[in-house]
Amino acid sequence: MGLATRLSGLALLVAVCVAGNVTGAPPIPNPAAGRVFISPSGEPFRPTPGAPDPFEAWFAHADTNHDGKIDREEFRADAGRFFKQLDADNDGVIDGFEIAAYERSVAPELAVDGQGLSGDDPQGAPAVALLSEPEPVSGADSDLNSRINLAEWIAAADRRFDLLDKKKQGYLDHDALVALLPKPGKARRP
Description:
Elements: H1 3-20, E1 36-38, E2 44-45, H2 54-62, E3 69-71, H3 72-86, E4 93-95, H4 96-106, E5 127-129, E6 147-149, H5 150-164, E7 171-173, H6 174-180
Parallel strand pairs: 1-5
Antiparallel strand pairs: 1-2, 3-7, 4-6
């Protein structure tokens, strides 16, 4: 491919990006861009060429009515969908084998060099999240019996929603969530 073709392709890309910002407001930088985003329920969203930023992909998926906010019911529905995905044998429980499969195959980034989500340097961590929960699936096991039923899962989703809804508005605002993502070079909040 010649230099002229590359330059015209780059110019087209810049024009599309600029045209996409019709409000004229500067875009909100997303510090998670380019890294795996772990949703509050533990679902990984990975960066892929041509796809939305991983955080943006999760937000668009969870915001089912596309109003720029995620209310409690949308948050629960998103959590419930991922519960069904993890419950491989469809018995209504995420058991120890399914938790191990999650950690090994679904979200192996959580175990990389012990960094996961809780590393001191979020820039070096393989994944970013809105909450500092080292392993969100196991974190839903409230009675610590290595078996998570749907009631425990939804209760964990409600706790997480309440933690993220800092202003107690009853919904999670896109821009407020972006502000909660770890900033490059900063230590994670406890």
